[in-house]
Amino acid sequence: MNSGYSLINKSQNKISLDSLTVFDEYVPILVTYTKEDAAINGLRVASSSDNGLEESHYFSALEVLSRDKQIILKAPSGMGKSFFLKMLARCMTGEVSGDKKFNVDRITESIERTETDSLPEKQNWDAGVLKPFIFELNIWAHNKDSIHNLPEEINEAQLVLIDGIDELQNEDWQWISTELQSFFEKNPETYAVIVGQNDMLDRLSPKLKGFKCYSIKPFTYSQKKRLFRNINPDLSCSEIENRLSEPVGSLGNLLEITQNLSWWIKIGKKPTTVQSFYSEVVRFLLQQENFDADQLKSSAYKKLCDQKIEINIVSKYHTILDHTILLEYFACQYCLGDDFSTHFNNLIGHNQNRAWSLSRILHLVISEQDPDKFQTLSSELCPSEDPSENNKSLSLSAILSANLLFEAFLNKMFIQDKSSKRIKDWLTAIITKGWLTPYDRITAGRLLSWMGDDRDFQEFAIIPENSFTMGDHILENNMPVHQVHLQSYKICKFPVVNKDYLLFVKETNREWNSPERDDPEKRNYPATSLTWFDAVAYCEWLTEKWRKEGVISSKEFVRLPTEAEWEYASRGSLDSSNNELLYSWGYGWKDNCCNSQELGLNEPCTVGIFPENCSQFGCLDMNGLVWEWNSTLWGNNPKKPDFPYPYNDKDGRENSKNAPNNIRRCMRGGSFGSAADHATSTYRGGLEPIGFWRGDGFRIVISEKQYHE
């Protein structure tokens, strides 16, 4: 095609660029990855004027594409993923054709990077003008002429844009992923964006290697202001502010905002809440279109459950049945009739990749009809059986049940009863046994934190006296591989979590500038934004406390692990006889085994939700999640340690107590922002002891041997 742009379509293999609608309302989308995460000075140095709570500065989707070349963008339906692809393709071809409106300047327009208003910055795009090719995987997969072959146009493209992954069947993904992997391995310089919903992308296997995964951020206040201004340029600043204070302004989803504004104008009535907005839309449809409410609810439910619907009904209600949000709304209304749990479980069973979208809509419907029903419906939805391997297929219902319970006690003190105890048992089983997807377990972990996570986060593994192999043959800083002999010690199976560190802060009045310190949904998250001195102070406080309580003897200390103790607890008896990366689970990388950059979450999560990320001693989360402070000195140079291997605890590297602040301390394990080759059991890093970041934490050991005294 002359334009260099095409789209696979059901009625014909390609349609021209001109047949696509690109809206003037386009607003650049942001991802959850920040400048602070990317920059080395994101590992900030504390000062007396620093409260640690500055706003984050987010990258745009375009900028991470420029940075990484091949990316996956994850987000719920309606967040602007497909819109971004079309706009990107339109502007690239527009630049070539001399389009004054849609060109590179338009796609790289300035953005506000923070949650609130900030000075606009031009987006960074270093790739110039690229020849784009966009296609929908689901349509291509069902084209009988395309089986096991990617479209020919992909070979000429410099920018490949892929949509439609949400509608794929797993068997289709098997051959498509193989073809895509082969193509991009042969064409590593080709830029590519794949977009899809979180649930669907989490469930697809195998994963594409070489693609960086990013989550799209819900619309910020600044983005909403720009969107309202683009939709109606005549709005004054005060009118825009008024819109933002109303229900539509509370939404963070591009599709919901634009569609709801459209309906708002159509019904001619300003809603007072999001719930009343949907109610007004329904009332308008039933009155103006002479729709039968029961028939409409039943039809929406049947469509989402792949049941047959009469042609005349499809024709009558096509306005609703083709509208994603309203379709889900009426289907959820149907479920709230007789036998709620059976109908809603059936709905979820047919739509697992949109389960959380349906859950959000269900909450709106319940809030509108009878908010007092949340707790009753939660009890109905939770499986009556005890969690076990035989009935783990019921896990998703258990999480959604917990989510309903959360709504029931919103802004109220949670009171546990027999039903909620059953829900807690399910949530605990889901996260400790690794059921469902990582994102499901992340949500389960937050809900369990809110309900009260009863796991023992101060459980210790006993490490016997032994010699082990330390280092690897991959990085210079990890060489030479050598043997180290260690005395017996105990190491905590988890990093220190927020609820335990907060007890220390409250008792000692120590400063802790973490926005998550009092979050009831993150009590079981690792404590972060801590300096090395914070970690040491916690250990000293806990030593005194536990000696008084008889938890440890008068000869024992709670302290940070040495670098050698940390590595042995993580790798165990694994040797370094080959050049494979080492992890707690063994040799070589495994998808979805830890919270690293590959997961695309870009933030911490509940500890222990990756049961495969467990060492032979039972230590969890030693790869990814958060960097962990060690007692060992690193040195002044961030790239090369002053204390190289072989490890020797008598050469001064463990005299860290009184070392100056410019001498870095070792950090191990990587974090949610670390790539697979950093989130290993052998990778060595270091940071100034007064530095801190939201990806830094620590775990503790108990030993009779105390260093730096």
Automatic annotation (TrEMBL):
The NACHT domain, residue ranges: 71-231
Pfam entry (one): NACHT
Domain Sulfatase-modifying factor enzyme-like: 462-701
Superkingdom to which the source organism belongs: Bacteria
InterPro entries in the cross-refs: CTDL_fold, NACHT_NTPase, P-loop_NTPase, Sulfatase_Mod_Factor_Kinase, SUMF_dom, SUMF_sf
SUPFAM superfamilies linked to this entry: C-type lectin-like, P-loop containing nucleoside triphosphate hydrolases
Region forming the signal peptide: none
GO MF annotations in UniProt: formylglycine-generating oxidase activity
Name under which the protein is recorded: Formylglycine-generating enzyme
Organism: Flexilinea flocculi
